[in-house]
Amino acid sequence: MAKFRQTKEDLERRCYAQLAYLEVLGRRVQLLEKQNELLLKYNHKLIEELGDRTPPIPYKISRKKTSKDTWDGLAAED
Predict the structure, then answer these.
(1) Rounded distance between C-alpha atoms, residue 54 and residue 22, angstroms
(2) What is the pLDDT of residues 28-46, one digit of tens each?
């Protein structure tokens, strides 16, 4: 079994690569935070504009009934 030895230069290169990667991730987080702020701002504007209108009617969600939806399914779980 051969042992792999790393030199100081190898470790420094790895550390600098990780540091650069962390900086890129930090920039991405900042961009996502900025996008989130903008979305919240526009969301509040839309709520204000639509606030004087009638409330929206929610869509009916049709889904397949399962055994949990029936009384028999509830009794079986006890």
Answers:
(1) 48
(2) 999 999 999 999 999 888 8
Task: Tell me which of 52 and 30 has the higher pLDDT.
Answer: 30
Q: Taking a C-beta distance cutoff of 8 angstroms, is the pair 68, 74 a contact?
A: yes
Angle at 27 between CA 44 and CA 42, to 5 degrees: 10
**Residue 18 pLDDT > 80, yes or no?**
yes
Q: Is 61 left (phi over 0), alpha (psi -120 to 50) or beta?
A: beta
Residue 43 CB neighbours (<10 A): 10
What letter would DSSP give residue 70?
Answer: S
Q: Which residues does 77 contact at the CB level (< 8 Å), separation at least 6?
A: 68
**Comparison of pLDDT for 54 and 4, the residue scoring more:** 4
